[in-house]
C-alpha cells in the first residue's frame, strides 16, 4: 500500500513536472528561434572584429565587446578575470613550392602551425621524406631523415561517422611531428591538413616542441589536402624533388588578457555554480565563427534565454568566455585555479566548442548516477531532434574544473562539416546557419534549465521518471 | 517447453542475424564514405549539365547521362520510360521595382512562379495590397483588391523545428494565390519567397490557376525575403506606392521526356519490386543540386553500394529517376500507371527528395504492422546517428504507388538549411557536402538491404526482435 501511494504520488508529480518542463523547453526553443541574439553577436564578433588570436588586438576588442554585451543583459555580475596569454604571430604570409628541376616550380598552399618557429630568413629547401605517421618516422634510420623535410601525410579516416574521432586519429602528426622529426635531423616538417575534404586551404593548429632546445627547433607547417595529394603523387615519380618553405612566425612574450564572465546569482543555492562557456580566442586565418565564436554567443544567449523565458535560476548560472584555448588553455586553467582558491562549488559545466551546426545532443563526464539522472531527461529533447546523450568528453576549457563529484558536458552538434572549416581561412560567418546556431543555444539553455531546477546531487530527491 | 525451445532458437537466430546485419551496414557505410559515386555524379549533373527544368535540353541531357551511368553499373536492366511533360519557359529575366513617386524607384528581386503567365508586354504597374494569406484576402471587398497587385507576405514559422512543416504552412499562398487574387480583380500577385532566412534571392515553385480561364490569368511571382520586408515596410509608410512587374514566361505544348530506370532482378522473389528514387527534373534558377540531384545520385548509388558490398538482393531493386516532379508529377504518375498495367507488385518504395544534408532517418507510410517491423531495425542505425523513424509522408513521385498493403518511405535529412536553397539560384553544388550526401546514400542502402532481406509481408516469418 505504501508503495502504491508512493507510485501514485510520483506519477502525479512526474506528470505535472513533465508538462511544465516540456512547456519551458518549448518556450526556450521558440525564443531562441524567433528572438535569439546569438547570430547577431556572432556577426559582430566575426565581421566587425574577426580572427581573435590570443594576445592580438582583435582578442582584446572581443573581450571589450562581449563584456559590454553581457553588461547589457542586466546580469547580477559581469567581470574580467585576468590571465597572461602567449602571443604568437604569423608574420608575413607563408610561401612554399615544389621544385622538380632548376627553375621548374609549382606553388603549394601552406601555413605555419601555431607555436612554430620561422624558417631561416632565406627559407629552407630540401628533399622530402613522406611518412604516414610518427611510428613510421621513428622506424627510419637517421640517415634517411637528416637534412630532409619530413612530410606527415596520414589522412583523416573517412569511414568514421564522428569526425572528431577521425581528427583524434591524426592530430598527433601535427602536434608532435616537429619534435620527432627534429630528433632525427630533419630541417623542417610539414603535415597534411586535418581536413576530410580535398581542397586548397591549409589548416593551422597547435603544435609542441616538447623539450627540444630552442636552437634545435625546426619549422612546422600544414599543407592543404589537395597539395598534400599533389606532393605525394609527385614524390612517387621523383623522390629527389625538393620542397621550399618560408615562414616568418614568431613566439613573443606573454601578454595580459582576460576571461570574460557574467552570472545570474542563484535564488536558492547561490553557492552551487553552473558554468556554461566557449572560448573567445580563435586562430587567425579565418574569423573563428565556428571555432569558437559560435560557442561564445550560444553561451551568452543561455543566460539571456533563461531570463526572457521567465526562468529564475535556483543555482548560480555563469557564462565564461575563455581566453587562449587554442594555444595554451591559460583561460581554462586560470578559471579553475581561481575556483579552487575561492573554494567555489562547481556542480556542472557545459562547453560548446564543436561548431555552430545543428545540435544532436551532449556528451557527459561525471559519476554514473548523476549522468544517469541527466539521461532520463532525454525524452524532453526528442521534439527538438536531440537524441545523442552519451558518456564522453566535455570541453578543453572546462576540463580543469573536473572533480570526482561534478559533471562536465559538451554540446555535440552535427560534425560532418566541422573539419571543412576548422582552423582554416574559411572558418567564417557565412558558413554558419542562423537556425542551426540558435537550435544549439536553445538546446544548451534547456539542459542548464533542467540541471538548475533539479540539481544532480541525489537520485532520490525528485520523483523517478518511469522507464 | 515448446516455447522455451522456440525462444532459444529465435534468440540464436536473432543473434546471428543481428551480427551479420550490423556487419553489412558497416560495410555499406564504409563503401559510401570511402568509395561512393554519388558526389561525382552530382558534380556532373550540377556543373556539367545544370538546372533541368522539364522539357528543357538540360533535362534531356540528364536523361542521357544518367542512363549511360546506370548502364555502366552492370545492372540487369536499364531503360527509359516515356512520359509527356509540360514545358514552361522563363523567358527573359524578370524585372521589378517599387515606385514611390514619378522617377523614384527601388529595384526588387523577383522571379516568375512556375506555370505563371507573363505580364503584359509593357509590364504591370499598380498599387499593392498586402495580405498575410488567402483567408485574409477572401475577407476583403472586391473594391479593395481590384486593379491592384496582391502581395502575400505570411512568413514561414521560424519556431517549427521541422522546416517542411513551416513550408507546408505557407505554400498555399504560392500555389493558390494567383487564382484567388484573380477572382477579386487583382492585376498581378506576388508572394514572399518560401525561405526562412532573410536574403536577396527569390524562390520559384509551382502554382496553379485552378479553373481560371486563360484570359483571366494574372502573372504570379515570388519576391526575395529581404525585398518582401522592404516592400512591407514601405507600404506601412505609403500605402499608395506602386509596384512594377515585368516577366515574359510562357507555357508551351507538352514534349516527350522519360523516367530513367535501372534494376537488379531479385534472385528469389523477382516479382516483388522495391523502388528507390528521386526526381531528375529541377527548377531552372540554380542547378538543382539539393532538389533533387542529390536524391537521384543517392538512389543510383543504392544499387551500386549493394553490389560492391557483396549483397545479392532477393527481391527486384529498381532505381527510378522520375521526370517532372516540380511542375506536373507526370513521371511519378506514369510509373505507377505502367506498374498497374503490368500488374507489378510494388512492396516498398523509398524516395529521397529533401536535400543532400546529413540524414536523420525516415518517415513511413503503410500498414502499422509493416511499419512496426521496420521500426525494430532502428537500433541497427544508431551507430550512424540515424534516430528518426516515424510514421509520415514519403515522396511525391512514389505517392501514386500507394496501396493499402505496401509501405512508402521518405529519407529525412536535417532540414535546417533546405529552404535557404530550395528553388532558388543558390541551389548549387557548392552547397552540398560530400560526406552528408554519402551518409544519405548509405542510410538508404541500409534500409533497402533490410527490407529486401526480410521482406515486410508477415510479422511471423522472421524471428521477433526482443524489445
Description:
Two copies of one chain form a homodimer. Chain A is of the alpha/beta class. Chain A folds into two domains: 18-88 and 253-454, Aminopeptidase; 91-248, Glucose Oxidase, domain 1, CATH 3.50.30.30. Chain A contains 14 helices and 16 strands. Chain A has helices spanning 2-35, 38-49, 57-71, 134-138, 142-145, 163-168, 171-183, 225-237, 289-308, 330-342, 368-375, 378-381, 418-421, 434-454, and strands at 77-89, 95-101, 104-107, 110-112, 124-131, 149-152, 188-192, 219-223, 242-246, 250-264, 269-279, 315-322, 345-351, 359-365, 388-391, 407-413. In chain A, the strands form two sheets. An eight-stranded mixed beta sheet of chain A has the order 1-10-12-11-13-16-14-15, with helices on both faces. The longest helix of chain A has 34 residues, at 2-35. Mean pLDDT of chain A is 95; it is low at 1-18 and 460-467. The interface between A and B is medium-sized, with 26 and 26 residues.
Break the fold down into its secondary structure elements and pairings:
The structure is a homodimer of 467-residue chains.
Chain A: H1 2-35, H2 38-49, H3 57-71, E1 77-89, E2 95-101, E3 104-107, E4 110-112, E5 124-131, H4 134-138, H5 142-145, E6 149-152, H6 163-168, H7 171-183, E7 188-192, E8 219-223, H8 225-237, E9 242-246, E10 250-264, E11 269-279, H9 289-308, E12 315-322, H10 330-342, E13 345-351, E14 359-365, H11 368-375, H12 378-381, E15 388-391, E16 407-413, H13 418-421, H14 434-454
Parallel strand pairs in A: 5-6, 6-7, 7-8, 11-12, 11-13, 13-16, 14-15
Antiparallel strand pairs in A: 1-10, 2-3, 2-9, 4-8, 5-9, 10-12, 14-16
Helix pairs in contact in A: 1-14, 2-9, 9-14
Amino acid at each position: 500500500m505504501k508503495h502504491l501511494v508512493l507510485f501514485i504520488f510520483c506519477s502525479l508529480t512526474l506528470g505535472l513536472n513533465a508538462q511544465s518542463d516540456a512547456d519551458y523547453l518549448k518556450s526556450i526553443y521558440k525564443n531562441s528561434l524567433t528572438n535569439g541574439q546569438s547570430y547577431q553577436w556572432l556577426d559582430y564578433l566575426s565581421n566587425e572584429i574577426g580572427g581573435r588570436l590570443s594576445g592580438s588586438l582583435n582578442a582584446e576588442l572581443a573581450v571589450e565587446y562581449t563584456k559590454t554585451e553581457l553588461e547589457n543583459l542586466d546580469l547580477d555580475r559581469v567581470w574580467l578575470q585576468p590571465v597572461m596569454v602567449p602571443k604568437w604571430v604569423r608574420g608575413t604570409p607563408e610561401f612554399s613550392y615544389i621544385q622538380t628541376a632548376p627553375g621548374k616550380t609549382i606553388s603549394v598552399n601552406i601555413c605555419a602551425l601555431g607555436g612554430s618557429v620561422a624558417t631561416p630568413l632565406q627559407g629552407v629547401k630540401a628533399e622530402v621524406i613522406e611518412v604516414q605517421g610518427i611510428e613510421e618516422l621513428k622506424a627510419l634510420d637517421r640517415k634517411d631523415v637528416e637534412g630532409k623535410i619530413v612530410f606527415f601525410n596520414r589522412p583523416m579516416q573517412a569511414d568514421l561517422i564522428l569526425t572528431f574521432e577521425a581528427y583524434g586519429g591524426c592530430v598527433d602528426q601535427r602536434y608532435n611531428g616537429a619534435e620527432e622529426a627534429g630528433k632525427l635531423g630533419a630541417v623542417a616538417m610539414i603535415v597534411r591538413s586535418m581536413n576530410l575534404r580535398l581542397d586548397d586551404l591549409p589548416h593551422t593548429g597547435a603544435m609542441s616542441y616538447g623539450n627540444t632546445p630552442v636552437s634545435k627547433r625546426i619549422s612546422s607547417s600544414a599543407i592543404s589536402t589537395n597539395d598534400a595529394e599533389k606532393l605525394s603523387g609527385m614524390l612517387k615519380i621523383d623522390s629527389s624533388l625538393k620542397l621550399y618553405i618560408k615562414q616568418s612566425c614568431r613566439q613573443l612574450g606573454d601578454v595580459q588578457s582576460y576571461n570574460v564572465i557574467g552570472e545570474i546569482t542563484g535564488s536558492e543555492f547561490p553557492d552551487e555554480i553552473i558554468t556554461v562557456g566557449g572560448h573567445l580566442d580563435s586562430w587567425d586565418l579565418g574569423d573563428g565563427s565556428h571555432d569558437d565564436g559560435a560557442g561564445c554567443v550560444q553561451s551568452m544567449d543561455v543566460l539571456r534565454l533563461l531570463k526572457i523565458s521567465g526562468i529564475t535560476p535556483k543555482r548560480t548560472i555563469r557564462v565564461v568566455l575563455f581566453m587562449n584555448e587554442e594555444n595554451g588553455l591559460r583561460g581554462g586553467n586560470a578559471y579553475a585555479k581561481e575556483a579552487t582558491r575561492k573554494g567555489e562549488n562547481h556542480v556542472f559545466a557545459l562547453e560548446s566548442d564543436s561548431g555552430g551546426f545543428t545540435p544532436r545532443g551532449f556528451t557527459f563526464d561525471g559519476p554514473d548516477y548523476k549522468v544517469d539522472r541527466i539521461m532520463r531527461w532525454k525524452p524532453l529533447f526528442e521534439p527538438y531532434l536531440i537524441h545523442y546523450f552519451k558518456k564522453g568528453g566535455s570541453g578543453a576549457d572546462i576540463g580543469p574544473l573536473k572533480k570526482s563529484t561534478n559533471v562536465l558536458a559538451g554540446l555535440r552538434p552535427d560534425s560532418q562539416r566541422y573539419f571543412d572549416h576548422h582552423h582554416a581561412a574559411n572558418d567564417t560567418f557565412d558558413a554558419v546557419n542562423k537556425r542551426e546556431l540558435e537550435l544549439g543555444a536553445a538546446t544548451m539553455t534547456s539542459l542548464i534549465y533542467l540541471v538548475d531546477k533539479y540539481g544532480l546531487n541525489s537520485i532520490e530527491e525528485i520523483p523517478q521518471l518511469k522507464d
